[in-house]
Amino acid sequence: MSRSILVTGCPRSGLGHVAGLLERLGVPCGRSELFNAASLEFGAPKWPRKRGAEASWEAAPYAEHLPAGTVVVHVVRHPLATLDSLWRARLFRSRSEARAFVERHATALTHGLPVDQTARLWIEWNELAESARDAGGLRYVRVRIEALDEAALRWIAELSEREFRREDLTRALESTVRTSSTELALGDWTSLRGTETLSRIDELAARYGYGRSALGGLLAQAA
Q1: What is the pLDDT of residues 133-159, one digit of tens each?
Q2: What's the burial of 94, exposed, middle or buried (CB within 10 Å: 0-12/13-18/19+)?
Q3: CA distance 201 to 223
Q4: Which of 36, 72, 121, 183 has its CA 20 to 30 A from that of 129?
C-alpha cells in the first residue's frame, strides 16, 4: 500500500504547485483541507486512511501527529521570492486568522517591525517543517521549488512507494507554469542590514543550496 504524502513548508513557497503536480500524476492532494487554521484550533486532525496527500503550510508544527511512514515533502523557495510574496500578502501588516496561527506556533514573531517579522517567518517556518526529519517514523525529503524536476518527483514516488511513468512525469512538469520574483520590489528591506535575522537567512539559504549571500548580497548592492 502506498504511503501518505504531506507537502509543507513556509507559506508562499510553491506548495500549491507541488500539489498540482501530484494530482496530475494521479495522487489526490488536498490543499489545507485537513490542516488549516480553523480545524487546528481543536488539535491535530486524524489522517484518513484513504487520503493520498495533503499540501498545507499550517501542518509544519504537527509532524509528531502524522501517521508512521508518512512522506513529508518540505518545499523551500528562494528567500527573495518568498519574502516578496509574503510582503504582498500583508501577513504582518493586518490582523488575520493566518497571522494568529503563525504567532501561536512561533512566538518570536509576535513582536518587531513587519519587515523583520516577515523575514524571520522564512527562518522559523522552514525550521518547523525541517523538524519532521527528526520525528520518529516519518520519511523526510526537502526539495527546492526552483529545482523540482523529474528526478525529484521520482524520489518522492520512491519514498511513497508509488510508480510514476516517465512520460507522465514529463507531461506533468511541462503542463505547469512557475513564476518567481528575482528582486524585492516592496518593503524597506534595507533595515535588515547587519542584523542577526539577515545572517540567519543567508546561513539557512546556503544550507538549502541558494548561496550564502542569497539576501545579504542584494541588500549590499542596494547600499
Answers
A1: 998 899 999 999 999 999 999 999 999
A2: exposed
A3: 18
A4: 183
Quick one: the chain helix, strand, coil %, rounded to 5?
A: 50, 10, 40
Residue type, 12: R
Per-residue pLDDT tens over the stretch 163-173:
888 898 988 88
Cα distance between residue 114 and residue 116, in whole Å: 5
Q: Look-up: residue for cell 510508480? A: 163
Give 10's Cβ-side CA count (13 Å radius): 28
Q: What's the order of all strands across the beta sheet hosting 71-76?
A: 29-31, 53-55, 5-8, 71-76, 139-144
Q: What is the pLDDT of residues 183-221, one digit of tens each?
A: 555 556 788 888 999 999 999 999 999 987 777 776 665
Cα 60–chain centre separation: 8
115, amino acid identity = V
How many domains does the chain fold into? 1
Is residue 177 classed as helix, strand or coil in its secondary structure? Answer: coil
DSSP H helical ranges for 77-149: 79-88, 97-105, 114-130
What lies within 8 Å, CB to CB, of 63 at 6+ separation is 72, 131, 132, 135, 138
The parent domain of residue 169 ranges over 5-221
Measure the CA–CA gap between 147 and 77, rounded to whole angstroms. 9
Tell me the CATH number at 101: 3.40.50
Backbone φ and ψ of 162, nearest 5°: -115, 165
